[in-house]
Design a protein that fits this description.
Helices cover 27% and strands 26% of the residues. The chain has helices spanning 17-23, 45-65, 121-135, 184-187, 194-202; strands spanning 30-33, 36-39, 68-71, 77-78, 89-93, 100-101, 104-106, 111-115, 139-144, 149-156, 159-162, 170-172, 180-182. It starts with 16 loop residues before the first helix and ends with a helix.
């Protein structure tokens, strides 16, 4: 198994979720996809800023509304014996929080967010998208600071459909009722205050 990211590791066996937890150190971001363990390199400053902003914004909104659970990039979702991705940000509805346990969750999140890095581009667009679709993740957000691209998908009859933006820049989530996002916030430098944008979303 190679730890150089961007290309698939050389694998002599298909790893299981049990192997994944045993082999990957605590605190190391990684994904188990189709029995392959992909280790992640450290975030760039830009990716980290977007990640922190989204976690703060979404978690504050979810907590304020009592909607469920928000996880960051070191939290695994066991989809089956050979798939346990760790989305950069994820949301789980309150009624499904019973599936969360000490080391992750059994089952998919309701929203998965991936922030594209140079090494993860193919994985985020071409591998995780069909995986999340097949496993029933209701919304998938791909945020690509390198390509200055953002894509939002909603699961309809088992297939992902792209979600339109209002006025070309405003995204409204169908899973997080009342939550919206101006995509320009994510590429602004310096990034805006998550607290200020939460108040804007809430209409305060």
């Amino acid at each position: 198994m190679k730890n150089r990211l961007g290309s698939a590791p050389t694998v002599h066996r298909r790893y299981t979720v049990k192997d994944f937890y045993r082999l990957v150190p605590d605190g190391q971001k990684a994904d188990l996809i189709d029995g392959v363990i992909y280790m992640a390199s450290p975030d760039s400053t830009e990716s980290n800023d977007i990640n922190v902003f989204l976690i703060c914004l979404i978690k504050a909104y979810v907590d304020h509304k009592g909607l469920g659970y928000v996880s960051g990039s070191r939290f695994a979702y066991k989809l089956d014996e050979h798939n346990a991705p760790e989305p950069d940000v994820a949301f789980v509805r309150r009624e499904r929080m019973g599936l969360i346990h000490k080391t992750g969750m059994t089952g998919p999140p309701d929203i998965a967010v991936e922030i594209v890095a140079e090494e993860s581009e193919e994985r985020d667009y071409d591998v995780k998208k069909p995986l999340y679709e097949a496993m029933g993740v209701q919304e998938y957000w791909i945020i690509d600071p390198l390509g200055m691209n953002i894509e939002f998908y909603h699961l309809v009859a088992g297939k992902y459909e792209p979600m339109p933006l209002e006025e070309g820049n405003i995204f409204h989530s169908e899973v997080l009722s009342g939550f919206w996002l101006n995509i320009h916030w994510l590429f602004a430098r310096p990034m805006p205050s998550a607290y200020a944008k939460l108040r804007e979303i809430l209409g305060e």
